[in-house]
Automatic annotation (TrEMBL):
One of its GO terms (molecular function) is ribonuclease MRP activity. Pfam families: Ribonuc_P_40. GO terms for biological process: endonucleolytic cleavage in ITS1 to separate SSU-rRNA from 5.8S rRNA and LSU-rRNA from tricistronic rRNA transcript (SSU-rRNA, 5.8S rRNA, LSU-rRNA); tRNA 5'-leader removal. This is Uncharacterized protein. GO terms for cellular component: multimeric ribonuclease P complex; ribonuclease MRP complex. Residues 348-370 are annotated as: Disordered. It comes from the Eukaryota.
């Protein structure tokens, strides 16, 4: 019997990256092409982000960190696809501005639309695709492997040819006015430095947007047992063995810490018959008071990069203790039915225990400044049906 199901539909993967964080990061120009910043940029649509810090760092430095980032906000609107191509909206937000748009619906089941960097992506079922008459390509839907029943259409609306009156552009307008006419609920985020949602001249105002502010929720986690998070052993011959045995343990512990599970608390007395989880390197665990800060809503990757950069700069400052660490995790809105990008977790580890060698040249002191290491886990899901 031939295999007709998509084999990737039931697979879940985790890609692990280990490296060194830069000793200095420019807030205006972060290295978005280098990990872990590239992992943040790969997930433009995030619905929640959480940050864990030691309580002593939160008390001493959180006001300074929060002052360097803007409070995220977005809008919820109901409008058809054709509204995107109206003169004011199109020229203000797409041609000259920068926005994020994501529609309601489930990938692989409904017609869903996204807009990022001026590129409009339409995921359509076969009937809608044929009625629209736009150029696209078949995509996997998580169902039968060789049946083409879902299609993706990508339109770069910032091309010079995308102007009212041009033949190709008028074809898109016709498809939106005659085939894809249903009004849908969108999440709208203006990425400009001074976004405007409710001003009189804002084109989005005619659609009566519901403006939503993403306020941080601060949750003290209490005293947790923190295992050793130093990554110095990666420099030795046992690095590969450490990678397989320890990275998984650290990832599991971080997952329980973000959930505030009793299994990682100081006074946990669970019966081993009910839970077989054991803290990694229990004898070396340190009792630490932790704080979790979380945001929920449409959080763009640009804002998360600002949050990560501001936190990293604070930890790299001379006033910061070398033994401190922080972890950030984000959960993405998957936009692919198969192998969707589900999110990531980034751990900035403490500085290595080994003392650094002093160099005779003072001019090279800044160049030999110790760098923190990081582990980045990227999660890729299976099918949206599972």
């Amino acid at each position: 019997m031939y295999e007709i199901d998509d084999p990737d539909a039931q697979k879940e993967k985790c890609y692990t990256t280990i490296g060194k964080l830069p000793p200095f990061v420019d807030v205006q120009q972060p290295p978005v092409k280098k990990s872990p910043f590239s992992s943040i940029s790969k997930h433009p649509f995030v619905h929640s982000t959480e940050l864990i810090l030691p309580k002593e760092i939160y008390d001493a430095a959180w006001d300074s960190i929060s002052s360097q980032i803007q409070a995220p906000q977005y809008a919820k609107v109901i409008m058809p696809l054709s509204a995107l191509l109206e003169h004011d909206f199109f020229n203000t937000y797409i041609k000259t501005g920068n926005i994020l748009l994501i529609s309601e619906g489930r990938s692989g089941v409904d017609n869903v639309y996204t807009l990022k960097d001026g590129v409009l992506r339409l995921e359509l079922d076969k009937n809608s695709y044929e009625r629209a008459g736009l150029d696209g390509k078949p995509i996997r839907s998580g169902g039968r492997k060789h049946v083409k029943d879902r299609y993706a259409v990508e339109i770069n609306l910032r091309l010079p040819s995308m102007l009212h009156g041009k033949k190709g552009f008028e074809r898109i307008i016709w498809a939106f006015n005659n085939a894809l006419i249903a009004s849908v609920t969108w999440l709208f985020c203006d990425l400009t430095k001074s976004p405007s949602y409710s001003e009189e001249e804002a084109p989005i105002r005619k659609h009566h947007p519901q403006i939503i502010q993403c306020a941080p929720n601060v949750e003290p986690l209490g005293t947790l047992m923190v295992p050793p998070l130093y990554l110095s052993d990666l420099q030795t011959d046992a690095g590969r063995e450490f990678l397989h045995e320890t990275c998984g343990e650290i990832q599991e512990w971080l997952g329980l810490a973000f959930l505030n599970s009793p299994r990682v608390h100081e006074n946990d007395t669970i019966d081993p018959y009910l839970s077989r989880y054991a803290l990694p390197d229990h004898d070396e665990c340190v009792k630490t008071d932790l704080v979790k800060i979380s945001w929920k809503g449409l959080l763009p990757s640009v804002w998360i990069t600002q949050l990560f950069t501001a936190t990293l700069r604070q930890f790299n400052s001379s006033s910061s203790s070398p033994g401190v660490w922080f972890a950030l995790t984000s959960y993405a809105l998957g936009r692919e039915a198969v192998e969707s990008k589900d999110g990531y977790t980034i751990l900035s580890s403490p500085l290595n225990k080994e003392p650094t060698k002093e160099l005779p040249s003072e001019s090279s002191e800044s160049e030999e400044r110790p760098q923190r290491q990081f582990i980045c886990w990227e999660y890729v899901g299976g099918s949206s049906y599972s």
